[in-house]
Each structure stands twice: as structure tokens, then as C-alpha cells.
């Protein structure tokens, strides 16, 4: 079951400048940043709010790391802007299978690694009224060491 907006993915040419815009304009701080070579992005997660399912909602700012990445291709065509939305679920495998059964193309056979150790997959935008849609299951929260 999809229980939150996990994040909105925003493609940008310059991650540092875009992070600074969100900090200076809205006061949002970077919660986490990483490079995901498989996805071809350098990214910053700005946490906006906690959600009632125990997760949180973020903005995901994305800068391409290579010319052949999906985000570089999208930026060349569209310029900066909203690239995708992501729904959070406790079970990305089950939700992806369920949605695939409804005739929507799921882009990955198996979920792949996303931000902060999450597991992610994508639904084809042409099957979702023009919206590239991601499904996310967050990594389990590690219990503190005793
Ligand atoms: N939102 C809406 N439509 C999109 C889109 C997007 N982000 N990206 C592509 N499209 C549309 C294009 O406009 C195009 O439509 P037209 O044929 O009408 O022009 C069509 O989809 C095909 O686009 P394309 O430019 O030829 O791109 P590809 O088919 O090579 O790739 C997609 C599209 C969705 C398969 C690819 O972007 C993908 O695999 N995305 C998932 C991975 C990803 O986006 N990773 C980065 C984020 C990582 C993260 O969130 O952690
Ligand atoms: Co994303």
C-alpha cells in the first residue's frame, strides 16, 4: 500500500546552487547527500516533514554525473524542473507486482538501490499520464547498539 509522498525529484544543472536556493529561500537544509553511480546522479535529500506511516517526505535534488544518464537526457530536452514523484510503501515488491498486473510498465525486474539504502523502482511515464513515478521502500531504521 502506498502511504506517503516519499519525495519529489527535481532535476538541476548545478546541485550546490540549487541546494543554496532552497536553503536561502525556504530554510530547507540538506538531510542527506550521496552519489548514485547506477542512476548517474549526485543528489541531495531535503527533509520537509515526517509522515504518519513512520517515514518522511523529501525533495530530492538531482544533478547528472554523466552525459548518458536519464537525468542528463531529460535536462537537455526540458531544462530544469520536476522530474518525477515517488510514493512510499512498506513493500515495494508487492506494490510493483500489483501495479504491473494493472498493465502499467514497471521499469526494473527487481527494485534497485535508491537514496539512503532504500529500494526503488519506476513506472513508465507514458503509462502514468505523463508522470515518471517511483516506488520506494526505505531502509529499515537501525536499532542503536547496546
Ligand atoms: N517525466 C515525464 N515524461 C518523461 C520523463 C519524465 N521524467 N522522461 C522521459 N519522459 C517521456 C519523454 O518526454 C518521451 O516522450 P515523447 O516520446 O512523447 O517525447 C518518452 O518519455 C521517452 O523519453 P526519452 O527521452 O526517449 O527517454 P527514455 O525512453 O530513454 O527514458 C525513462 C525514459 C522513463 C525510461 C527513463 O528516464 C528511466 O529509466 N527513468 C528511471 C530512472 C531515473 O529516472 N533515474 C533518476 C532518478 C533516480 C532517483 O530518483 O533516485
Ligand atoms: Co527519486
TrEMBL record:
UniProt xrefs under Pfam families: Glyoxalase_4
Keywords associated with the record:
Isomerase, Metal-binding
The top EC class is isomerase
PROSITE patterns named among the record's database cross-references: VOC
Q: Tell me one GO biological process term.
A: L-methylmalonyl-CoA metabolic process
- Stated EC number for the protein is 5.1.99.1
Q: Which GO terms describe its molecular function?
A: metal ion binding; methylmalonyl-CoA epimerase activity
Q: Which domain of life is it from?
A: Bacteria
Q: Which residues form the VOC domain?
A: 4-138
- Keyword Mitochondrion present in the record's keywords: the answer is no
Family label = Belongs to the methylmalonyl-CoA epimerase family.
What PANTHER family has UniProt attached to this entry?
A: METHYLMALONYL-COA EPIMERASE (PTHR43048), METHYLMALONYL-COA EPIMERASE, MITOCHONDRIAL (PTHR43048:SF3)
What is the protein's given name? Methylmalonyl-CoA epimerase
